[in-house]
Amino acid sequence: MLGRENWAFVATVIEKAKVNPTIRDAAGFYPQFAMMALRFVLKGVVRRHTDQVLIFTDDLPVKQKKNAIKKAIVGACREALPRSLRFDTYHHPCASNKWIQVADYCCWSVFRKWESGDVRTYDQLKPRLFQPN
Questions:
Q1: What pLDDT was estimated at residue 19?
Q2: Long-range CB contacts (< 8 A, 24+ apart) of 67-71?
Q3: pTM of the full predicted structure?
Q4: Does residue 8 lie within any of the structural domains?
Q5: 55 and 34 Cβ atoms separated by less than 8 Å
Q6: Any domain includes 10
Q7: Sign of CA dihedral 102, 114, 91, 74
Q8: Domain limits for position 40
Q9: Which element (helix H / strand E) includes 3?
Q10: Domain membership flag for residue 4
């Protein structure tokens, strides 16, 4: 599928209503949890001879969230990656990037599992859940 056989995904389930109200605002909530997931992935899978990391997100439509999320992504990369490793971030509409569509589908399957107990798609994708070494 898509030219790669060893892909995996990470999903974080957060019940916003149970999160401390001081970090529920859009400018703080999304960046904080995006950074958590990104740090987890970057520390677990960057191979030894990697010379560049490319990060793609869906187009970020809300300007207030967009700047905060972009800043969080850059901060997480600087924190988790060696200084010598170059990274770039790209924000495109999901229709233009098949991997963003795959990530969206994987996250939808997790949402269905937690929201309604529908595990059909989740169970099919479960072998692709990222497991750190």
A1: 82
A2: 68/26, 68/27, 68/28, 68/30, 68/31, 69/30, 69/31, 69/34, 71/31
A3: 0.74
A4: no
A5: no
A6: no
A7: negative
A8: 16-46+53-128
A9: none
A10: no
Instruction: Name the DSSP letter for residue 118.
Output: -
As a whole-number percent, the residues of the chain with pLDDT over 90 amount to: 21
Mean pLDDT for 86-91 is: 88
Would you tell me how many other CB atoms lie within 10 Å of the CB of residue 72? 19
| C-alpha to C-alpha distance for 129 and 8, rounded to whole angstroms | 5
Q: Please list the helix, strand and coil fractions of the chain in percent, rounded to the nearest 5, in that order.
A: 55, 10, 30
Contacting residues for 69 by C-beta, under 8 A, at least 6 apart? 30, 31, 34, 57, 60
* Residue 23 tokens, joined: 């970090």
- How far apart CA 42 and CA 10 sit, in angstroms, is 11
Model confidence at 1, pLDDT cuts 50, 70, 90, reads very low
**Burial letters for 33-69: b for 16+ Cβ neighbours within 10 Å, e otherwise?**
bbbeebbbbbeeeeeeeeeebebebbeeeeeebeebb
In the prediction, which pLDDT does 27 show? Answer: 66
Total domains in the chain come to 1
Q: Is residue 7 part of a domain?
A: no
